[in-house]
Amino acid sequence: MKKYALISAVALASTVFSTNAQEVVNSDSTGFKFTDVKVAKSTPVTNQNKSGTCWCFSANTFLENEIIKATGKEVNLSEMFVVYKCYHDKAVRYIRTNGQIHFEQGGSHLDVPYIWERYGMMPEEAYKGLEYGEAKHDHYEMTDGLKAYIDALKNRKKAKYSTAWLKGLDGILDAYLGEIPATFTVDGKEYTSKSYAESLGIDMNDYVAITSFTHHPFYTTFALEVADNWIWGQYHNVKMEEMKAIVDNAIKKGHTVAWAADVSEKGWQWKNGVALMPAEKTADTLEGTELARWTALSDKDREKERYNFHGYVPEIKVTQEMRQEWFDNYQTTDDHGMVIVGSAVDQDGNRYYKVQNSWDTNQIYKGFIYVSEAYFLAKTLNITVNKNVIPEKIRKNLAL
């Protein structure tokens, strides 16, 4: 997940969101009027700015929310600690596989538990990762340098590597993100990254990734075949409606969900704060003057009108077969990581998931978007959840 990292903004949210239902926005500008049904507590909206690290921002937010749920304590975890450690380990795998893994900015939600278990965690106050004259994250110069360096090593003719190449890569990371401190102090107590992680009250063994595709048997695990799954993380495969049932149960129990999805669809309308999967209009659904007008339009104009919706429009009825076809032909791609924080309805009673993004707050819903159930079913790559929110029957089938 790495696309759409260029959206920057002006202000951070400052509150933890409550579980109380509330009416959200005026319907004049978008045609929608949403009412939150149940929203879990979540830490503030963040800003990944010009970095392809949505996977880390969203996974950190998800785990921060799990810490709130487990302990009642609000923390702000360091994204750049995780990013630094991922680049280090990714470089080792890149060289070890002769460049056959993805050495780019992207990653998966599973990268954060991977780093947590191996290296621990740090709070944002101990490691901000902004040591290159910028107030907000801007990783393109750094990643260009990292990629050029690692490719030069991979492509050299000498067979044996020196003992210095990994130190050289860490030197680039140190220059941009800063050296990682061996110890740091929080609330008057000294920690290492390992001891700080142990103090936070959650267990990485409680978190599992879920997906839904038919090219592997249901109720088995497999390494999801996307380039950013560089750790070859394992995903539990369930039926499409079961994946949705897991999210619904998580919301019911007051948990959030890390969500990886395709956001390149025309129905994903960030500025308007809503995502739909509009159905195509056909002769069977139109009549009279409307049919004549529609028939007279060009294909381009029909497509434009389909996605120029003002308020709810009929949506595609998503099937398991559609999900598989779209994944296989790259109509569904591994674009972006976010956090599902709750559920909502529009003025007509249609259901949505309320989703927290990491593109800051200069947007109609201050960093949130309402995603229809059809969009979720069609364009979800995977979710990461606390295994205790998985409904009992599904969990039994998964042997969890």
| Total DSSP helices | 12
Shape: globular
Q: What is Rg?
A: 22 Å
Mean pLDDT: 92
Encode the helix/strand succession as letters.
Answer: EHHHHHEEHEEEHEEEHHHEEEHEH
Task: Decide which structural class fits the backbone.
Answer: alpha+beta
Share of helical residues: 25-40%
The end-to-end distance, rounded to whole angstroms, is 26 Å
Largest sheet at a glance?
A: 11 strands, mixed
Poorly predicted sequence stretches spanning 5 or more consecutive residues:
3-20
Q: What proportion of the residues form beta strands (DSSP E)?
A: 15-25%
Give the number of DSSP strands: 13
Oligomeric state as shown: single chain
Q: Can you lay out the helices and strands and say which pair or pack?
A:
Blueprint: E1 35-39, H1 54-71, H2 79-96, H3 111-119, H4 140-155, H5 165-177, E2 184-186, E3 189-191, H6 193-198, E4 207-211, E5 221-223, E6 234-237, H7 240-252, E7 257-261, E8 268-269, E9 274-275, H8 288-296, H9 299-307, H10 320-328, E10 336-345, E11 351-356, E12 368-372, H11 373-379, E13 380-386, H12 392-397
Parallel strand pairs: 4-6, 9-12
Antiparallel strand pairs: 1-10, 2-3, 4-13, 5-6, 7-10, 7-13, 8-9, 10-11, 11-12
